[in-house]
Amino acid sequence: MLYVTLTDVWFWLAAAVRGGLSMSLSAKDYKKILKIIDIIHSAPDPNTMFRGVCDELKDLIRIYSAVFAPIDPKTRRYYFTGYEVYNNCEASMALYLDHYGSLDPFITCNWYSNANKAGQNTELVPKHVFKKSEFASDFLLPIDIFHILAASLVSQGDKVGTCGFHRHKSENDFGKREKDILDAILPHMATSIRNMRMASETEYGKEPNGIILLAEDGQTLYINDAARQATRGVPPGSIPTPGSSPVFFKNGTRMFRVRTALRKDGGTRMVILEPYPPEHRLGSKLDGFGLSRREKEIAVSVIQGLSNREIAERLFICEQTVKDHLRSIFGKLEIKRRSELPATVLGLRTPE
């Protein structure tokens, strides 16, 4: 938990000023922001977290309603389940995801490419133009919404969701203070969502990715077989920690996307090592080569840098079977050696 004192508030204020945030925010605003950050990092799930944030923002920046839509980081598409509607109807969110989202100025003006930064609809499109648009006239105004602040929630290079905060047409528009407040809490929302998602989706011993738990001093508390193979000769505590952008870890011929999350105890860090390129991206690229299911599995493993022995261990087959499948794969892709497989499948060169 985050316990707020007056010293905390002024420390946060000083840090914010050094970081370039607007001086339009008062010490009272920063104290409220600290309270919201506490709610964000102590919530049990993303939906409870979002509702708690909205309860505080209702008075702090006078929002009328709000929506949160989770995004699958792998496909970068909205989930049709798991979204949260605050002080509005479920049907409106379903309509947005099904049709009106493609008309949203935050989409059409590409504002969603900005990570953890609130955008204002009336600054993207002139008010008189926006009022006559299909998005406003057919969707927003019938549910008594006009002014919107929206943002993409991004953590470690992954878009994990989007959120929007609303006011009535009869109310004043959002201003710089409101945007500055949201900009201060959005990175925390994104990090919290990613942490909770990683914790809920990971099962020790069943997860194909490498999993490492590190104590606060960097000591390894847990490491699964996949992570042990990935880090051979490299101390797990030396693996780089992602910031706002993706981070990769290379060991020999193998490359991994690094994802991290702080666990609820606050001192334990979970590190996920995802083989790169990930299997879900390679699957579609292998579809046009006429490979069998087993041949696709072996081709993916080769591209991810595994040796024949490691592939055999992963798939519970003997090395000779791996070699036999590789000969068939080389024939179908019209290549002669293992080193040509990644370039051919990833489109870095065409088969000769």
Give me a quick take on this structure.
This protein is of the alpha+beta class. It has helices at 6-18, 27-42, 46-60, 90-98, 105-108, 121-124, 127-132, 134-140, 176-201, 225-230, 279-286, 293-303, 308-315, 319-333, 340-345, and strands at residues 65-70, 84-86, 119-120, 147-155, 158-167, 210-214, 220-223, 247-251, 254-262, 269-276. Strands 2-1-5-4-3 form a 5-stranded antiparallel sheet. A 5-stranded antiparallel sheet has the order 7-6-10-9-8.
Describe the structure in your own words.
- The protein has 15 helices and 10 strands.
- With 352 residues, it is an alpha+beta fold.
- It folds into 3 domains: 192 residues, GAF domain (Beta-Lactamase); 67 residues, PAS domain (Beta-Lactamase), CATH 3.30.450; 67 residues, Arc Repressor Mutant, subunit A (Orthogonal Bundle), CATH 1.10.10.10.
- The strands form 2 sheets. A 5-stranded antiparallel sheet has the order 2-1-5-4-3. The chain has a 5-stranded antiparallel sheet with strand order 7-6-10-9-8.
- A hairpin with a 2-residue loop joins strand 4 and strand 5.
- The longest helix is centred in the middle third of the chain and has 26 residues.
